[in-house]
Amino acid sequence: MSSPAPGLITSAGAGRFAPSPSGDLHIGNIRSGLLAYVRARQTGRRFLWRIEDLDRVQPGAAQSQLEVFAELGITPDEPPLVQSDRLEVYAEALNRLAGQGLVYECYCSRKDIQQAPSAPHSPPGAYPGTCRDLLESERERHRQRLDEQGRRPALRLRTDNAEVTVHDRLLGEITAPVDDLVLRRGDGVFAYNLIVIVDDGATGIDEVVRGDDLATSAPRQAHLAELLGLPQPSWLHVPLVVNTDGRRLAKRDGAVTYQQLRALGWTRDDVFAWMGASLGLAGPKDAWSSIDDMVSGVDFDGLLTRETVFVPPDGSGD
């Protein structure tokens, strides 16, 4: 493992919630964030907040999300980390990987990748390695083509598609191949897998609690952490909240955000009562009514792994 770059690690012992400020939090987002807080409090970790604002930002959403958690009794232990303030740090991490010969330009569009034949032994949907070993003359030709289109090449991580296994406290072993994932998109935005592991390392996140839709990203992020000389966190992926069709909650599903539910008469007590019932940990006779109830009532060893269906209250939509 490489030694860490100076300034990448500043502290240790924390959990975090890292919502994208793309809109109001829905009940599923909130449950994942509350579970991250509960886990931090149960294990004596700090609870930190990260604003992942490099893409899909809605003005005012970040502050609104913090206010919702404050109303639920939760304040982060430190000021939020804002990703848009850390571009130089991500560039440093990218340069560190490039210095190891692990970064190359990719000139493919999404359509190019979809239409390309899969490389042998690669997982479905993995990047087929089209641009991995091009000659410099070919690269120059592709750069010129993209330049004429007003585009830039993406930057990818050079890998061997080897499988990486991490242990999840709830799900057990998670094994997935690590392909030549994007590190910086063609529009210049640093990619999720790179920046989250850099930020987690910088803030001392030693356990990641988040929705299990991101479970298969954990092996990729563990691999990047090793390459950057960063400590690998432990993982706890919690079940999602979905709509009646089994899909992620969205505005079209009716009243799913905290603000919408409050407008229909839900109280803070109702929110916590639903949390307990949805996790199978508290029924009507012992309903939760506060974050303290949730901290004392959540048993992560006995947490359900199946998805929870959220049915919006009557009058919440068509």
From TrEMBL:
Molecular function via GO: ATP binding; glutamate-tRNA ligase activity; zinc ion binding
Pfam families reported for this sequence: tRNA-synt_1c
GO cellular component, one term: cytosol
One annotated GO biological process: glutamyl-tRNA aminoacylation
Keyword entries, A-Z: Aminoacyl-tRNA synthetase, ATP-binding, Ligase, Metal-binding, Nucleotide-binding, Protein biosynthesis, Zinc
PROSITE patterns in the record: AA_TRNA_LIGASE_I (PS00178)
SUPFAM superfamilies: Nucleotidylyl transferase
Domain Glutamyl/glutaminyl-tRNA synthetase class Ib catalytic: 16-272
Coiled coil spans: none
Family under the similarity heading: Belongs to the class-I aminoacyl-tRNA synthetase family.
PANTHER family, per the entry: GLUTAMATE--TRNA LIGASE (PTHR43311), GLUTAMYL-Q TRNA(ASP) SYNTHETASE (PTHR43311:SF1)
Stated name of the protein: Glutamyl-tRNA synthetase
